Predict the structure.
Amino acid sequence: AALGRDATISLLSAAHAMDHGLGDVTQSDIAALAQHAYISRFSRGDRVLSRGQTGRHALFVLEGVLEERAGDGQACSAKRIMGEWLGEELVLGAGEASGIGAFDMLFSAGGTRARDVFAQTDCTVAVLTDEALAELSRREPAVAMKLYLHWGNLLLDRVAPQTAKDRESQALAKDRSVGTGASWIDAEEVFRTRKD
């Protein structure tokens, strides 16, 4: 059974309050978003998303816990709880030919999902499709921009640890090149080649 507008707004507001999961939005922004999202419910153990599936929608966890599983379908690689997004990077297109090591680790090329996702508990999610996001952008551009900015910040938070690790590796290679008589430019070329 479909939820009414007020119930959808209430669920979105409660989940947003957990960790500002919708970004810098007002209550009227949440109401506008509620008009473009739909609600899905999953029982414990249900498959929510499948590895290899094209990412054309993002999920915002309203209630419950989602569990991402690695390629073998068994090992838990990450959990998403109330107030967190899943799949926003594919809707934004970051999964496509990003060229950034951390994105390559998180998402497979071509905008497909890199992990299976299951409901660890009974779950309720708000679903925002790429079409709904385009419509939101046309009708409520300020609300869509707030969401885009928030998603961008989430992606940066995920990429930052990998970027720091890459910088440490580069510094280590530089230190090693000094000891072997190779130039720093040679080490830089190795890393540039590795990333290509």
